[in-house]
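Q: My labmate handed me this sequence with no annotations at all. I'd like to see what the chain might look like in three dimensions before we decide whether it's worth expressing. Could you predict it?
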Amino acid sequence: MVHCVVFVMDAFMPDQDTILLWRKKVDDMHDELKHTGVPLMVLLTKIDQLCERIRTDITYCYKSEALMAAVYKAAQLFKVPESYVFPVQNYRHECEMDPTIDILTLLALQHMIYIGTDFLHSIKLSDHKDEDEDKKIAEAETQDLVDFINFHEFNGIFL
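A: Here is what I predict for the chain of 159 residues:
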């Protein structure tokens, strides 16, 4: 069963033609997910390349106007609340793990788990008496979603 759909894109917004292409694909995804209620969220990567201040001090990320603008644009593009857009910094040249970089990724992962868990709690199928039937329905809906995702190419967007 799919518990949450996560789009991954870098913080730099693409050109208008690419946005229009993505918008169509995202709208198709929303239409497919509408009946299931599966939540969507966005990981916004490469935030350290948005501004010099974030590059030198990752703790500045939530104060950066450039990052907040990128979060807003991503929220608009993917039709999710801004609170469902999570900025993360990529490892580029680091040889060892850095907790200041990891904390944003771990925070995003924690919220993925919360969002997925909330979704599971919202679809408790306790009204059905036949658990095998519930399992078959959930598996069929998940397979339909996987088939839909595989059928559509989300160039530049990773799921």
